[in-house]
Every structure is written in C-alpha cells, then in structure tokens.
Write a structure and sequence with these properties.
Layout (H helix, E strand, L loop, with lengths): L16 H20 L13 H22 L3 H21 L2 H4 L10 H27 L4
Helix pairs in contact: 1-2, 1-5, 2-3, 3-5
Length: 142
C-alpha cells in the first residue's frame, strides 16, 4: 500500500465555488425581481396593507444585506441568503396552498398567473438554497 500513489488533494466536488457563487447571485436577484411583481402584477389588495408593506421592507433589507455579503464572499452572506431563500419558499408555497387544499392561507386566492409565478419562484429559491448551502460549506474562513 505504501507503493501505491494516490492523490489525496483531488476532491470529488460536483460543483465549483465559482459556479455556486454565480448561481446564488443570479437566484437572489431573480427572487427580488419576482417579489417586486406582487405590487404590479397581483390584483389582490391584501398586499397593500401596512403589515405586508413592513414584511416586504424587511425582506428587501435582508436580501440586500445578504447580497452585499455574498458579493464580498463572506460566509455570513451565504447563511443569510439561505435563510431568506427558505423563508421565501415557505411564503410562496403557503400562497399556493389553495392549489392542493382549496383554501388560501396568506391572502385571498391568487389568480393563475400569480400561482405560476409562485411556483417558478419556488424553483429559483430552491436554487438559492442549493447554492448557499454549498457555499457555506465550501468557504473555510471569512
């Protein structure tokens, strides 16, 4: 066994750090764009109430903060991005709760366009979860 040469430095990683970093940045920006559509595509008046405006303001502040730290390649940015992505997946899935159970939890029932937008958003947020998880574990310091 001593004579066999093995390269211990070779890692069996499926995705690179740069791929995950680019994927996370793109998915966070796409999530912000999709979230903005609630104010010009959604015809439900529920999202113009004070509570939802505060929630959206907090969401945007969190997204901008995580984007800033992700741009700086800090581990805290990957953690914040993962948390906001999981939260966004939950929100969009609860908004589409009516598809399976014929009852709306968050607000009144959305129309078909908003329902499709929510499902597309879930996929994009899922990519953000994937990338943030990989980046959090790939980054050693920072």
């Amino acid at each position: 066994m001593k004579d066999s040469k093995s390269n211990d430095n070779v890692k069996n990683e499926k995705t690179t750090y740069q791929f995950n970093h680019s994927l996370l940045l793109i998915s966070l920006i796409a999530m912000a764009i999709i979230s903005t559509t609630y104010f010009w595509m959604d015809e439900r008046e529920d999202f113009f109430e004070f509570f939802w405006l505060v929630v959206l303001t907090i969401w945007y502040a969190w997204a901008i903060t995580s984007l800033l730290f992700v741009f700086l390649k800090r581990k805290i940015g990957y953690l914040l991005a993962g948390i906001i992505a999981w939260t966004t997946v939950g929100f969009w899935m609860f908004d589409n709760f009516h598809v399976v159970f014929d009852i709306s939890i968050i607000a009144s029932k959305p129309d078909l366009i908003i329902t499709l937008k929510n499902f597309i958003g879930v996929v994009i947020a899922g990519l953000a979860i994937f990338a943030s998880h990989n980046l959090f574990h790939k980054s050693r310091f920072q």
